[in-house]
Amino acid sequence: MLDTFIAGLLHGNAYALVAIGISLIFGVTNVVNFAHMSVFGLGAMLAWFFVVQLAWPFPLALVAVLALTGLLGVLINITVVRPLARYLPIAALLATYAAAQILDSLSQWGFGPRVRPFPDVLPTGNLQLGGLRLGTSDVVMFAITIVVMAGLAAYLKFGRNGRAIRATAQDPDAALQMGIPVGRIQNLSFFIASALGDSQVCSWRCTPPRSRRPWAPRRG
């Protein structure tokens, strides 16, 4: 039971960052962004392209993916969400679903449907914790999640733009009257939401399958 609990806790950290991104976008636009996961999928494919095809170091590839997916999130806001802001929220919601289908089709057209393995770019050794055998890469990704979540929480609480994001999420009209550039804050939210999840998704995708197996009790 304990190993199952820990496995679910650590393997679910990527989904936690995805959920935070969706919540951040919903807060400032009142729209559920169905293209969110498609952006993350494209980011994982771009990471593979940079690491395998262009032979970039993984840290450089990760920075490039974060920048590109963040800009893609801003593009979705500018071209899909914001033009429909004056209509019912369902209009923008359906538009993001269409954007997701376009991104998925472009990803499949550009990279193909075949499964492509990643090289060993993260540590793959095992750690021992009591009777459990732990993957080093899982521990690294869990630490990244904690750092990113703590940094984002501090930014939203103490940062100038972070407080502007919270004000926009609470009442966009009042925030606009107080001089907050709501459009720019929405773009910033899309950038952060689209980039922060890829910091985890890319790390997970760039971990060899053997290190992503469920945690198991130590035998013998």
Description:
It is a single chain. With 220 residues, this protein is mainly alpha-helical. The chain has one domain. A 3-stranded antiparallel β-sheet has the order 1-2-3. Strand 1 and strand 2 form a beta hairpin. Helix 2 packs parallel to helix 6, helix 4 packs across helix 9 and helix 7 packs across helix 9. The longest helix is centred in the first third of the chain and has 24 residues. It is globular and about 55 Å long. The two termini are 18 Å apart. The relative contact order is 0.20. The C terminus is likely disordered.
Provide keyphrases for this structure.
mainly alpha, 220 residues, disordered C terminus, 5% strand, three-stranded antiparallel beta sheet, 3 strands, single chain, 71% helix
